[in-house]
Amino acid sequence: MYPLIRNRRLRSSNAIRHLVRETILTPSDFLVPLFVVEGRGIKEEIPSMPNYYRLSLDQLAKEAKELWHMGLCAVLLFVKVPENLKDNAGTEALNADGLMQRAIKTVKQACPEMLVMTDVALDPYSSYGHDGIVDKGRILNDETVEVLAEMSVSHAQAGADFVAPSDMMDGRILSIREALEEEGLVDTGIMSYSAKYASAFYGPFRDALDSAPVDMQHVPKNKNTYQMDAANRFEAIRETQQDIDEGADIVMVKPGLCYLDIVREIRNEVDVPVAVYQVSGEYAMLKAAAEKGWLDHDAVMMEQLIAIKRAGANIIASYFAKDAVALMG
Ligand code: PBG
Fold first, then answer.
1. Please, what CATH class does the domain formed by 19-328 belong to?
2. Strand partners, 253
3. Rounded CA gap, 289 and 58, in Å?
4. How many Å is the Cα radius of gyration of the chain?
5. Do 244 and 270 form a contact (C-beta atoms < 8 A)?
6. Which long-range contacts (CB under 8 A, 24 or more apart) does 83-91 make?
7. Ligand 1 pocket, 166 CB below 6 A?
8. Nearest residue CA, atom 5 of ligand 1?
9. Gap between the Cα atoms of 104 and 160, Å rounded
10. Tell me, what's the pLDDT at 265?
11. What confidence score (pLDDT) does residue 319 get?
12. Is the CB of 125 under 6 A from ligand 1?
């Protein structure tokens, strides 16, 4: 013990700190979420997500190439659906020439080797802003799952490498896997949002896609009947294990920072890759504090990303991906 053992020896220079560092971020850790809109030449900043944009297809192609050159080789696509195309059943989601299907092709054309993942859920397509079909104040499970399975097939046929169901309906992974197999899409992977909590941190994302639950009679005001209760831990393991049994190739914990205990627990429990989604509200919080000069943006960003990886994330979906990689030099 002291004075023979001095822990500060391993911290005494940059070189030794580097040598003993346990967690190192690299560009290949990241999955980059991208928001796509109709139109041309559009790159509009999302008000609650400074320096993050909605992109029209031409801009999406440009962005994909830029990401690829930075070593960012995986994207997660979301679409903002025009209001007049929304309905309760999310019918537009199945349009083979819909915005998502065109976005997939656009990225693949611009960057053939880019890994393309797509969000699978009804909310951007739903006139009520829910991830499932609404019926008398309830969100229907099995009817929704049928649409999700068809939607997944449609994305895969358009060229998606992975589909990423973010809806939290029961049994959707098995139904999606079976639907993909039936169509011979055996190589399409599934990244399941398996432990997705009902979180207030999704606010800015819902601004970005204009996808918040609408304030209407007989429409639930929140997503608490399908997304998980923030208070629960065992349930996260159960959800994740079930999704793996149903055929998920990658599982996910979401949001990130407030749920790192869950990330560690799941990393210890399962033997498939674990993704963590550092969500829009986490991004917005740091941007706001940095704008006020209250936090050092880059330092806090890197500390948070390191914490997510240290907790056990094998993949980090983050709006900071580009900023972080730029900083890595
Ligand atoms: C849609 C979906 C959401 C997010 C990803 N997919 C919003 C929600 O569930 O309400 C949130 C992502 C973020 O906040 O960055 N099912």
1. alpha beta
2. 195, 276
3. 33
4. 20
5. yes
6. 83/210, 85/125, 86/125, 86/126, 86/127, 87/125, 87/126, 87/127, 88/126, 88/127, 88/128, 88/133, 88/134, 89/122, 89/133, 89/147, 90/122, 90/125, 90/126, 90/133, 90/147, 90/151, 91/125
7. yes
8. 166
9. 6
10. 98
11. 98
12. no
Q: Which listed residue (86, 254, 287, 322) is catalytic?
A: 254
Pair 71, 28: CB distance under 8 Å: yes
Question: In testing the pocket of ligand 1, which one of 168, 202, 209, 277 has its CB within 8 Å of the most ligand atoms?
Answer: 202
Instruction: Give per-10-residue mean pLDDT for the chain (329 aa).
Output: 96 98 98 98 98 98 98 98 97 98 98 98 98 97 98 98 98 98 98 98 95 95 97 98 98 98 98 98 98 98 98 98 95
Domain boundary assignment for the chain: 19-328
CA dihedral 136, 95, 164, 175 (to 10 degrees): 70
DSSP annotation of 83 reads G
**Residue 254: CB atoms within 10 Å:** 24
Q: Is 279 in the pocket of ligand 1 (CB under 6 A)?
A: yes
Q: Is 108 a catalytic residue?
A: no
SS3 category, 17: helix
Which residues, 6 or more positions from 264, have their beta carbon under 8 angstroms from its beta carbon?
311, 312
Tokens of 316: 């980090």
Q: Is 262 in the pocket of ligand 1 (CB under 6 A)?
A: no
According to the model, what pLDDT value does residue 329 have? 76
124: CA distance to ligand 1 center in Å? 10
Query: Do residues 128 and 153 make contact, with C-beta atoms less than 8 angstroms apart?
Result: no
Q: How many CB atoms lie under 10 A from the CB of residue 42?
A: 16
237: its two tokens: 């393991």
Does the C-beta of 119 come closer than 6 Å to ligand 1?
A: yes
Q: Is 254 a catalytic residue?
A: yes
